[in-house]
């Protein structure tokens, strides 16, 4: 193994990390808002809201993200109407096209995860909150949403990891994130194995941090599932 | 036939089969990697067939070299790594340059081309100097003022090139600080962005640029400015071969020289590119 080359490769690929993270975070943040909206539409019980959400989720979960990115970037740019519209300053930039495609894609998956979380909120807790006189808004904000997030977190963690990796597809629309830089370096040096090992390791480190963060969040949100502190147990045992 | 003689036959066959590659590789069958997305050199039809100047020429060269050729389509950016990994034995249409010579060997050139700019009809650049005239970058007295004028015209613009081509190298070397370079996987991706107005100008092989306008959907793109030749451009186009396959290279060297001498390359290149690309000896 040529460690000097691996080190040089790392130095070449690291400048791509901020763009990778920016793409992933923008898409996850915007996607989460959209996903929550979609999940609520699905659970609204109103056909006029339920069906559009169903169609949206079906479309974006059933087509490859690669195709979605390609159609949004190259496809939309072919129409004069799009090129002369107020949207063009955004759609002209590969960055915003990538954010848009990633956002729309993750929203579809996340909406189903959120829907599962919302459905898993125990009915007894909702009834208790109602009995305590909570309004619908307060009930949703204080009881339903926190419990739903807790239930959805393990599955949502996977979606976060998928999004970090999905940013690699942005390289096909000329964005020089980690994979884009790796492809460029391979084209220059013809050393695909070493470059991909380094690129893969960068994603590994990024996702290691993400999994730790998700685990920490999970722990924080489930204090009731942790064993009680030892001192109290001893007290109880002595009695 | 007894069991013993058949065992002997199998043993003999095994020994022979083991012995042959040690002497020289058997080149009765040659696998050739080709991009299939760089018309008119090579392209893929809607039903998946490879066509183009390269394909016609290969049919002729393989007959001359008396080998059976199998064409394998491969994405451009990984074509040389795939050659080295043994996915095929030769690669088609690579521009010769020094950096690439360190990695692989080349046959003698089978075509001598040029590079040119492409503009979109309603784009931000109206015209370039020296439309359609040849300009050799080695001829510094003549090239320097033209390149200086180009530099002024391109200042602040975005130039689209295919990633890791000699076209990218030329743009970076000559206009690097003044322009934004955007790199694409294929010429077609770049052309879509030129039409969409995301980039101001494209730079590619002159053959590609000259034939672009005639394809459906490309009515708004045209070739413009000088036809460039000289370093770092790799306008001499050859077949690439692994460094340890010298015998295969010699086989195709001879075939290419014969095809250049008897006018076959002229016929095929004029048919596909409207330009006589016969390499100068």
UniProtKB/TrEMBL annotation, chain A:
<feature type="transmembrane region" description="Helical">
    <location>
        <begin position="55"/>
        <end position="75"/>
    </location>
</feature>
<keyword id="KW-0813">Transport</keyword>
<comment type="similarity">
    <text>Belongs to the binding-protein-dependent transport system permease family. HisMQ subfamily.</text>
</comment>
<keyword id="KW-0997">Cell inner membrane</keyword>
<dbReference type="GO" id="GO:0022857">
    <property type="term" value="F:transmembrane transporter activity"/>
</dbReference>
<dbReference type="InterPro" id="IPR043429">
    <property type="entry name" value="ArtM/GltK/GlnP/TcyL/YhdX-like"/>
</dbReference>
<dbReference type="GO" id="GO:0043190">
    <property type="term" value="C:ATP-binding cassette (ABC) transporter complex"/>
</dbReference>
<dbReference type="GO" id="GO:0006865">
    <property type="term" value="P:amino acid transport"/>
</dbReference>
<dbReference type="InterPro" id="IPR010065">
    <property type="entry name" value="AA_ABC_transptr_permease_3TM"/>
</dbReference>
<keyword id="KW-1133">Transmembrane helix</keyword>
<dbReference type="Pfam" id="PF00528">
    <property type="entry name" value="BPD_transp_1"/>
</dbReference>
<keyword id="KW-1003">Cell membrane</keyword>
<dbReference type="InterPro" id="IPR000515">
    <property type="entry name" value="MetI-like"/>
</dbReference>
<protein>
    <submittedName>
        <fullName>Nopaline transport system permease protein NocM</fullName>
    </submittedName>
</protein>
<keyword id="KW-0812">Transmembrane</keyword>
<feature type="transmembrane region" description="Helical">
    <location>
        <begin position="20"/>
        <end position="43"/>
    </location>
</feature>
<feature type="transmembrane region" description="Helical">
    <location>
        <begin position="160"/>
        <end position="183"/>
    </location>
</feature>
<feature type="domain" description="ABC transmembrane type-1">
    <location>
        <begin position="17"/>
        <end position="214"/>
    </location>
</feature>
<feature type="transmembrane region" description="Helical">
    <location>
        <begin position="195"/>
        <end position="215"/>
    </location>
</feature>
<keyword id="KW-0472">Membrane</keyword>
<dbReference type="InterPro" id="IPR035906">
    <property type="entry name" value="MetI-like_sf"/>
</dbReference>
UniProtKB/TrEMBL annotation, chain B:
<feature type="domain" description="Solute-binding protein family 3/N-terminal">
    <location>
        <begin position="29"/>
        <end position="276"/>
    </location>
</feature>
<dbReference type="GO" id="GO:0030313">
    <property type="term" value="C:cell envelope"/>
</dbReference>
<protein>
    <submittedName>
        <fullName>Nopaline-binding periplasmic protein</fullName>
    </submittedName>
</protein>
<dbReference type="Pfam" id="PF00497">
    <property type="entry name" value="SBP_bac_3"/>
</dbReference>
<feature type="signal peptide">
    <location>
        <begin position="1"/>
        <end position="24"/>
    </location>
</feature>
<comment type="similarity">
    <text>Belongs to the bacterial solute-binding protein 3 family.</text>
</comment>
<dbReference type="InterPro" id="IPR001638">
    <property type="entry name" value="Solute-binding_3/MltF_N"/>
</dbReference>
<keyword id="KW-0732">Signal</keyword>
<dbReference type="InterPro" id="IPR018313">
    <property type="entry name" value="SBP_3_CS"/>
</dbReference>
């Amino acid at each position: 193994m040529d460690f000097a080359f691996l080190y040089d490769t790392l130095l070449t690929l690291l400048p791509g990390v901020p763009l990778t993270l920016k793409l992933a975070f923008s898409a996850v943040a915007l996607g989460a808002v959209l996903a929550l909206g979609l999940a609520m539409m699905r659970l609204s019980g109103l056909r006029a809201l339920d069906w559009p959400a169903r169609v949206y989720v079906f479309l974006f979960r059933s087509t490859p993200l690669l195709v979605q990115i390609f159609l949004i970037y190259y496809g939309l740019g072919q129409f004069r109407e799009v090129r002369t519209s107020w949207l063009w300053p955004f759609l002209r930039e590969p960055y915003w096209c990538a954010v848009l495609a990633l956002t729309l894609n993750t929203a579809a998956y996340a909406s189903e995860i959120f829907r599962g979380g919302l459905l898993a909120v125990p009915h007894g807790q909702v009834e208790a909150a109602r009995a305590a006189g909570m309004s619908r808004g307060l009930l949703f904000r204080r009881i339903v949403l926190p419990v739903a997030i807790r239930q959805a977190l393990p599955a949502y963690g996977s979606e976060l990891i998928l999004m970090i990796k999905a940013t690699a597809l942005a390289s096909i629309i000329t964005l020089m994130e980690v994979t884009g830089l790796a492809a460029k370096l391979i084209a220059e040096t013809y050393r695909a194995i070493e470059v991909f090992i380094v690129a893969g390791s960068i994603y590994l480190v990024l996702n290691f941090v993400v999994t730790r963060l998700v685990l920490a969040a999970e722990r924080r949100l489930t204090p009731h599932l942790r064993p009680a502190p030892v001192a109290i147990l001893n007290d109880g045992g002595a009695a | 036939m007894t069991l013993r003689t058949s065992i002997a036959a199998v043993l003999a066959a095994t020994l022979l089969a083991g012995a042959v590659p040690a002497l020289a590789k058997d080149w009765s069958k040659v696998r050739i990697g080709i991009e299939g997305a760089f018309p008119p050199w090579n392209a893929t039809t809607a039903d998946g067939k490879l066509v183009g100047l390269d394909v016609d020429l290969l049919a002729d060269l393989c007959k001359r070299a008396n080998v059976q050729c199998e064409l394998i389509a491969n994405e451009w950016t990984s074509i040389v790594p795939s050659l080295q990994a043994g996915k095929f034995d030769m690669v088609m249409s690579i521009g010769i340059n020094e950096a690439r010579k360190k990695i692989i060997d080349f046959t003698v050139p089978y075509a001598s081309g040029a590079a040119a700019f492409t503009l979109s009809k309603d784009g931000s650049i109206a015209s370039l100097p020296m439309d359609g005239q040849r300009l050799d970058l080695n001829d510094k007295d003549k090239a320097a003022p033209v390149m200086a004028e180009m530099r002024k015209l391109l200042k602040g613009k975005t130039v689209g090139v295919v990633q890791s081509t000699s076209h990218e190298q030329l743009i970076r070397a000559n206009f690097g600080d003044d322009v934004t370079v955007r790199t694409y996987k294929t010429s077609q991706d770049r052309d879509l962005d030129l039409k969409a107005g995301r980039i101001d100008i494209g730079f590619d092989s002159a053959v590609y640029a000259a034939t672009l306008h005639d394809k459906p959907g490309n009515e708004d793109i045209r070739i413009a400015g000088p036809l460039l030749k000289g370093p770092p451009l790799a306008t001499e186009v050859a077949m690439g071969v692994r460094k340890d396959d010298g015998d295969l290279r010699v086989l195709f060297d001879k075939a290419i020289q014969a095809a250049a001498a008897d006018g076959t390359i002229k016929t095929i290149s004029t048919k596909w590119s409207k330009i006589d690309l016969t390499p100068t000896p």
